[in-house]
Write a structure and sequence with these properties.
With 296 residues, the chain is mostly helical. The protein has one domain. Helix content is 76%, strand content 0%. The protein contains 14 helices and no strands. The radius of gyration is 19 Å and the shape is globular. The two termini are 23 Å apart. 50% of the residues are buried. This is DMT family transporter. Keywords: Membrane, Transmembrane, Transmembrane helix. InterPro entries: EamA_dom, EmrE-like.
Length: 296
C-alpha cells in the first residue's frame, strides 16, 4: 500500500465535511432540521452497508468495545451537523478543530502517550486561539462564556468527540474495518435519533418534516458522500499517528472557510483569523513532533 493513501483518504474526508454545511443548510431551509437529516441519511447508509455486506453486523457484535466508538462518532456527528447549520461556518470549524489539543489529553489517558513540554505549549496555543475567537474585542476574560452561542458549544463538544473518535480508531485498529465502519454509522444514526427525540419533546427542534423532494434528493446524495467520507476517515486515522491525523484534517478549515466566503458571503474578522492561526499553529507543531518521533 502506498504511504500517501491514508493522507489522501483524510483529505477526501476533510473536503466532504468542509463543504457539508452547504447541503445541511439547504435541507434546513427546506424544513428538515439537521438532527433529523442526520437520522435519515445514516439510516440510508446503514441499510446500504448491510445490504452489501450483511456479515458485518455479526462481525461487529463480536466487539462490544465498539459501543464506545459508536457513541463518540455519533455525538461528534450530531454536534458538528447542528453547529454548521445554525452557526457561523468559520467560527464553528475553528472551535471544532480544537481537536488536536483534545487529542493530546486523550492520547495521554487512553494510549499512554505522555505529553511533552512542547505538547503542553501546543495546548496553550490552541486554547489561546479559542479565547481570541470567542471573546469580543471589548470584553474581559470573565466574559469569555457570556457570548457563547449554541453553535459554539456544539462545536467545542463535537471537536472533543472527534478527537476521542480518532484515538479510539487507533486503539481498535486490530478490529476489522467493516465492523468499525458499521459502529460509526450506527452511532451517528442512534445518537442523532436520541438527540432529536429529546430535543423535539422539549420543544427545542421541530419534528420530522414531511417528505419533500427539495430535501430528499440532497439527503440521498449527501448520504453517499458521508459514507465515503467516514470510510476514508477510519481508513486514514487507523494508519497514522493521532498528531498527523489532526494536522491533515485541518485542511477542512481551508475548504470550509473558502466555501463559506464564496457561497454564504461570510466575513473573516482579524480576531478570527489570528485565533485560527494559533489553533492551526498548535496542530502544525503536533505534526512536526510526530514526524520527529517517527524518525527517532
Amino acid at each position: 500500500m502506498h504511504k500517501s493513501l491514508p493522507v489522501f483518504a483524510l483529505l477526501l474526508n476533510a473536503f466532504i465535511w468542509g463543504l457539508s454545511w452547504w447541503p445541511f443548510r439547504a435541507m434546513h431551509q427546506a424544513g428538515l432540521h439537521p438532527l433529523w437529516a442526520t437520522v435519515f441519511m445514516y439510516a440510508l447508509v446503514l441499510l446500504g452497508l448491510l445490504a452489501l455486506r450483511p456479515a458485518t453486523l455479526r462481525q461487529a457484535w463480536q466487539y462490544p468495545a465498539l459501543l464506545l466508538l459508536a457513541a463518540s462518532s455519533g455525538l461528534n456527528n450530531v454536534a458538528f451537523n447542528w453547529a454548521v447549520t445554525v452557526g457561523d461556518v468559520v467560527r464553528v470549524i475553528l472551535l471544532f478543530y480544537l481537536m488536536p489539543a483534545w487529542a493530546v489529553l486523550l492520547a495521554w489517558k487512553i494510549l499512554g502517550e505522555r505529553p511533552s513540554p512542547m505538547a503542553l505549549l501546543r495546548l496553550l496555543l490552541a486554547f489561546g486561539g479559542v479565547v481570541l475567537v470567542l471573546l469580543p474585542a471589548d470584553a474581559s476574560l470573565t466574559g469569555l462564556f457570556a457570548g457563547l452561542s449554541l453553535a459554539d458549544g456544539l462545536a467545542v463538544f463535537g471537536g472533543f468527540m472527534f478527537a476521542l473518535t480518532n484515538v479510539l480508531l487507533r486503539r481498535f485498529q486490530a478490529i476489522p474495518a467493516d465492523a468499525r465502519m458499521l459502529a460509526m454509522f450506527a452511532g451517528c444514526m442512534s445518537m442523532a435519533l436520541l438527540t432529536a427525540l429529546l430535543a423535539s419533546n422539549a420543544g427545542l427542534v421541530p419534528g420530522f418534516a414531511a417528505f419533500d423532494s427539495r430535501w430528499l434528493l440532497i439527503a440521498v446524495g449527501l448520504a453517499v458522500l458521508l459514507m465515503l467520507g467516514n470510510w476514508a476517515l477510519q481508513f486514514g486515522a487507523a494508519r497514522l499517528p493521532s498528531g498527523v491525523t489532526s494536522v491533515v484534517m485541518l485542511s477542512e478549515v481551508v475548504f470550509a472557510s473558502v466555501s463559506s466566503v464564496l457561497i454564504a458571503h461570510e466575513a473573516l474578522t482579524a480576531r478570527t483569523l489570528l485565533g485560527g492561526a494559533l489553533i492551526m499553529g498548535a496542530a502544525l507543531l503536533a505534526a512536526l513532533a510526530s514526524s520527529r518521533a517517527k524518525k527517532s
